[in-house]
Amino acid sequence: MQLNFQGEVLTPMFLGSADSGGEPELRAPSVRGALRYWLRALAGGIRWADDINVRETNLEKVKQEERTLFGSTDRRSPVSVLVIPEEQKTFPQFKRERAGKDYL
């Protein structure tokens, strides 16, 4: 099964590059990390319980769901993420005039 999603960035992003001084890039591992985060946030919120024993059981279920979807050290993920930029835009570099605590 293949699902395709198209997204748009609406707020500024702090991006970097593996190449020092290179063009910033949005990479698939960063998107996977964000997806993992939101899975935990949403599934954890849905499975939250007032009873501490039920909560601990549900937390284990959330962790298992995350491992099933995104993989773990024991098992590969069935999900692949590919980032294809629609167009390359170059934005001006932030010019830091002051260093340390004074840059704000």
Task: Tell me what you see in this structure.
The chain has 104 residues and is an all-alpha fold. Helix content is 37%, strand content 0%. The chain has helices at residues 28-46, 52-70. The chain is extended, with a radius of gyration of 19 Å. The N and C termini lie far apart (48 Å).
Distance between the termini: 48 Å
What does the main sheet amount to? none
Overall pLDDT level? 81
Order of helices and strands: HH
Overview features:
104 residues; 2 helices; single chain; mainly alpha
Quick structural overview:
The protein has 104 residues and is mostly helical.
In terms of topology, how is this protein built?
Blueprint: H1 28-46, H2 52-70
